[in-house]
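User: Could you go from structure to sequence for me? I need the amino acid at each position, not a summary. Structure tokens:
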């Protein structure tokens, strides 16, 4: 595997990719008790640049606080490790995965007194929906409901939260769809398994608000700010599921998914079966931003010297 030639960062030092191993009984492997982030770096005319690094690391630290994890590193140290890792691996466009976990093989649910390790990996990465990012994907409304903050803290990007996402995504794929759409406990549109969702109606950009227990996506925030700068009205509110079927356009957003049009939902054609004009506009502006072609948002990029 090519990635075995890469270096990863583990507890303050660089080691070979294939040397980053843990005990089979590691707590976070058994119970899903880790936290993580997904960050992208893009190739630009000034070299590789990490997109919104400080915001991702801040969310990583917030996830740690929510789960009472003392990582032993501050934001500057972790940001610096990401930068050094991309540089050490001589990567251009890549995906960066910080991960903090209970590196302890003792049996038992409690995490009190258990060792915490912090890992960062960086590897080349293409499209999440391979070959479908531009032409669009087919989704189904999942029978699984989105978890809510009375069950697990949804603001934390925690490993265990994503069992909910895996069930929904697998269900969709087993029925022949590309991805799922989750509905909240109260019956409103929430998000995809690993993506936030937007719809366009009457030239307004609409997205579910926090009442649907969504993850506060950094790509989601970026697109709302890019849209506002382009003169597009942005509305955060509760969204009824049937609104997706009557929307002018629907698309997913996320670090991995970037901007992916949704062209069918439960067999109903939406967005005219293709990426709509506002989706296309926002996608182009987003890709200009992450590749350093938009000076208005250049401060979102951390360039790797």
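Assistant: Here is the amino acid at each position, in order:
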């Amino acid at each position: 595997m090519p990635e075995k030639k890469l270096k990863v960062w583990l507890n303050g030092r660089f080691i070979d990719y294939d040397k980053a191993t843990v005990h089979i009984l590691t707590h976070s492997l058994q119970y899903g008790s880790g936290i993580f982030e997904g960050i992208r770096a893009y190739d630009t005319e000034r070299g590789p640049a990490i997109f919104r690094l400080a915001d991702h690391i801040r969310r990583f630290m917030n996830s740690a606080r929510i789960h009472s994890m003392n990582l032993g590193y501050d934001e500057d140290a972790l940001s610096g490790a990401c930068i050094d890792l991309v540089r050490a691996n001589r990567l251009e466009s890549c995906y960066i995965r910080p991960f903090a976990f209970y590196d302890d093989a003792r049996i038992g649910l409690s995490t009190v007194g258990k060792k915490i390790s912090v890992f960062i990996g960086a590897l080349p990465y293409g499209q999440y929906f391979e070959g479908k990012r531009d032409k669009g994907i087919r989704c189904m409304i999942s029978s699984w409901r989105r978890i809510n903050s009375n069950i697990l803290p949804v603001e934390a990007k925690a490993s265990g939260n994503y069992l909910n996402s895996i069930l929904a995504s697998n269900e969709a794929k087993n029925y022949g769809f590309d991805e799922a759409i989750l509905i909240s406990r109260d019956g409103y549109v929430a998000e995809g398994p690993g993506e936030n969702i937007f719809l366009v109606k009457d030239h307004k950009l609409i997205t579910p608000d926090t009442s649907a227990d969504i993850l506060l996506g950094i790509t989601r925030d970026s697109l709302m700010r890019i849209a506002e700068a382009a003169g597009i009205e942005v509305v955060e509110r509760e969204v009824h599921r049937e609104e997706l079927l009557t929307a002018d356009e629907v698309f997913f957003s996320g670090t991995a998914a970037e901007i992916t049009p949704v062209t069918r939902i439960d067999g109903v054609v939406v967005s005219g079966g293709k990426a709509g004009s506002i989706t296309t506009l926002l996608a182009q502006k987003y890709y200009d931003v992450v590749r350093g072609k938009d000076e208005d948002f250049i401060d979102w990029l951390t360039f790797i010297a």
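One structural detail worth keeping in mind: The first strand starts at residue 7 and ends at 10.
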